[in-house]
Amino acid sequence: MTRVVIAFVSAMLAAAVVGSIIQTQLNLSALVELSVAVSFQTRISTIIHDLLHFSPLFGAIVSAVMLIALPLAYAIAKGLKHEERWWFIGAGFIGMLVCFWLVNSLVPMPTLIAATRSWPGLLAMSMTGALAGWVFGRLWHPTPKELQEPVI
Amino acid sequence: MSKRYRVLTQLMMAVGLCLSPYQSLAADKFDVMAIANDLDHPWSLQELPNHPLNFLVTERSGGFKLISELGFVDEIPLPLPDLFVSGQGGLFEVSLAPDFNETREAFFSYACGNIEANSTCVARAELTPTRPMKVTELRKIFVAQPLRKGAAHYGGRLAWLPDQTLLLTLGDGFDYREEAQNLSNHLGKVVRMTRTGEAAPGNPFPHQAGGYIYSYGHRNSQGIVYDSTTESVWQHEHGPRGGDELNQLHAGKNYGWPMTSYGIDYTGAMVTPYQELPGVVAPIYQWTPSLAPSDMALYNAEMFSEWRGALLITQLAGKRLQVLQQRQQAWQVVHQLTLADEQRLRAVTVASDGAIYLLTDSAAGQLLRLSR
């Protein structure tokens, strides 16, 4: 039980951090396209701001998605006797895609997370679900080969 | 106790309970009276110049009403071409021509199209002089370009300049915020047109976006007035989370969105790391946290003589009326008033008797009179 909790929390943290950094880069690139200069220092301070203010919300969204997606993927993988890691990855990706669609149809604004307004942004942010699935599978049920890898 | 009397009592009590860091309005100095109830998300009000204290009121759902001083409500059929009612979209403002008494011309801003392709439109019409009032010669004269998806951020406020050209505020469509900096379209702009809907002569970008653009870099502006005393155009706009702005508009200037903002996105993410940039006009006042300014009127009457020259600004999320005055070169909130039930306020106008009339924003909206 402890292992699954640690795996899940680690996966959610990874997705929240990576998702936050991706959306920061997408937002800043939109400004750069408007000929706004963004220095390295400004980029770093914006990443930090968004990690503090955006990632908690995004982490909550990813967690809600994965609480449904991961058990579903596990059940399917067990039923079909397939490699569960790929099902976790796929379920995370599709779960996030469905979540963005669902959230945008429920909230008053057309698109809640600005970075998902474009297809590349939507796919990039959905990949955080895939990442969460991979991290979860890697930590919960590592392969014998992975268990032999050095910790650091 | 009748409903009308109960509302009046609640409102008068609320005036006294005004929660404010600014100077409170004493209850014994003010009367707040409900003139009309059960308006469906009323959006704008305009006093008829030849019938003092009779108001034209629009409803977002498309309703158009004439409301008398005593609260009698006449429905006026308004078959707007292509009206789109959804989300924030619908019928917005009614604005009468400066020479309305002679021409009977009225102008309507509204969302037009459908959920996949819509925009802000302006229609021109004539109002019959006798009751029951009717709308004739109704014709669409302007469609903001391009059409976009979704039902948010339309702008929609109108103001007349002394040369009888018409300013229209336009939103960025929410999902298209970067387009507020693109001079090849009307998203996030204030446009200036003639009363026939053509681009007004003298606009600063005659060869771009049909020559309509007056200013750009706006997010979603729902307040604009012309101040003849100072020859200024005052405009306010919604920021995202924080960063609502009051601006003094100048033709051809960039007001920054989304390159500069004092606010952040609803999700907590930064829209931009910059609050000010060279070449961008900074707001003369900004609200953080956001109060969601929804309309603005200039006070130049005698009833509240201490407010002469002040801007009256209604707030939706802030649920209050604010009075802003310029003191020592800076704009300050000098008074604010919160009504009973903390109602969202959608529109404000100053009538010929000097009283202030307000519209509340709900499915059972009210027309209120604030006087002393």
UniProtKB/TrEMBL annotation, chain A:
Transmembrane feature ranges: 57-77, 86-107, 119-137
Keyword Membrane: yes
Keywords, ordered alphabetically: Membrane, Transmembrane, Transmembrane helix
Record protein name field: Uncharacterized protein
Taxonomic placement: Bacteria, Pseudomonadati, Pseudomonadota, Gammaproteobacteria, Alteromonadales
From TrEMBL, chain B:
Gene Ontology MF term list: oxidoreductase activity
Cleaved signal peptide residues: 1-26
SUPFAM superfamilies referenced in this protein's UniProt entry, alphabetically: Soluble quinoprotein glucose dehydrogenase
InterPro entries: 6-blade_b-propeller_TolB-like, Glc/Sorbosone_DH, Quinoprot_gluc/sorb_DH_b-prop
UniProt keywords, alphabetically: Oxidoreductase, Signal
EC number: 1.1.5.-
Pfam families documented for this protein: GSDH (PF07995)
Keyword Oxidoreductase in record: yes
Gene3D superfamilies: TolB, C-terminal domain
Occurrences of domain Glucose/Sorbosone dehydrogenase (ranges): 39-369
Protein name in UniProt: Aldose sugar dehydrogenase YliI
Organism name: Pseudidiomarina piscicola
Lineage of producing organism: Bacteria, Pseudomonadati, Pseudomonadota, Gammaproteobacteria, Alteromonadales
Gene: yliI_1
